[in-house]
From TrEMBL:
The keyword Transferase does not apply. This is Cobalamin import ATP-binding protein BtuD. It comes from Haloarcula japonica (strain ATCC 49778 / DSM 6131 / JCM 7785 / NBRC 101032 / NCIMB 13157 / TR-1). Pfam families: ABC_tran. The keyword ATP-binding applies. Required for corrinoid utilization. Probably part of the ABC transporter complex BtuCDF involved in cobalamin (vitamin B12) import. Probably responsible for energy coupling to the transport system. It comes from the Archaea. Keywords: ATP-binding, Nucleotide-binding, Transport. Its EC number is 7.6.2.8. Residues 1-11 have a biased composition (Basic and acidic residues).
Length: 267
């Protein structure tokens, strides 16, 4: 039995089989980190299991991106431990299992390549830099179709809207058969009409058993869509079901007195 997502099987099965002995996808234990002697993440312990859909929220400069880099092994904790799929995050080397969509991904002008070429890169960990087989190309095209980008497959990535670019990079992760999708503020630059559709896509990937972890500034969107919320402001102020976050005192404590309600537009 495996806790890996069913996306690779064509998504026919709606649930993820779990194995009692499978380690959490992400496990941070008492992690502290500072760029200087001042910690920006302090004593953070978080465990995320396969198939969860989690949003990290917090005010500007509260350590959200730093936390993502710690759990992806891009930064080494000053103290505590960070594990990815049961392995020390900095030593983790099965990069295809993790699809990371950074903020502003694909906006560089040095990237005049098409959506299909971007998504094709998702196969490289599996085939090296060799030629893709017909089966690999089917996986690429299915990934593009899953994110609703078939009509734009030959469009240059630099000629897409913010939301379309996000979809292209999610497709690259799907082509790599990622089990974990990590997104840093994915709806920045996405027009309001497309935000719901974007969350619909994340929901369907979650239904396929993919673990979804995102940083989101839109608190309303978080409580509507993510299943679990982690509210960070150097330390964790709240970690629980998103439905319980709405009126949480933690919201006011983490964001300050101006953010007592989610309808106030604070972020
Ligand atoms: N490379 C760096 N070197 C030094 N300080 C940094 C670096 N990156 C971030 N910081 C500082 O660490 C703190 C946390 O930053 P981080 O980017 O993790 O916050 P964030 O919650 O993601 O912020 P935002 O919501 O504004 O993107 C901030 O005070 C920031 O200025």
């Amino acid at each position: 039995m495996t806790a890996r997502s069913h996306y690779r099987d064509g998504g026919d099965e709606a649930t993820t089989e779990s194995n009692e002995t499978e380690p959490p996808v992400i496990e941070l234990t008492d992690v502290s980190f500072g760029y200087t002697s001042m910690p920006v993440v302090e004593d953070v312990s978080v465990s995320i299991d396969a198939g969860e859909y989690v949003a990290v929220v917090g005010p500007n400069g509260s350590g959200k991106s730093t936390l993502m880099q710690l759990l992806l092994g891009l930064l080494d904790p000053d103290s505590g431990t960070a594990q990815l799929f049961g392995v020390d995050a900095t030593a983790f080397d099965d990069g295809a299992r993790v699809g990371y969509v950074a903020q502003g991904a694909g906006t560089s002008r040095e990237m005049p390549i098409t959506v299909r070429e971007v998504v094709k890169m998702g196969r490289f960990p599996h085939v090296g830099f060799g030629r893709l087989s017909a089966a690999d190309w089917r996986i690429v095209d299915r990934a593009i179709d899953t994110v609703g980008m078939s009509a734009f497959a030959d469009r240059r990535i630099t000629q897409l809207s913010g939301g379309q670019r996000q979809r292209a990079f999610i497709a690259r992760a799907l082509a790599g058969e990622a089990d974990l999708l990590v997104l840093d503020e994915p709806t920045v630059g996405v027009d309001t009409e497309s935000v719901d559709a974007f969350y619909g896509l994340l929901e369907s990937l979650h239904d396929d058993g993919i673990t979804v972890l995102l940083i989101e500034h839109d608190l309303q969107a978080v409580t509507e869509h993510a299943k679990r919320v982690i509210c960070l402001n150097r330390e964790i102020y709240f970690d629980g079901p998103s439905a319980e976050f709405t009126d949480s005192a933690a919201l006011a404590r983490a964001f300050g007195t101006g953010a007592r309600s989610l309808t106030g537009g604070n972020s």
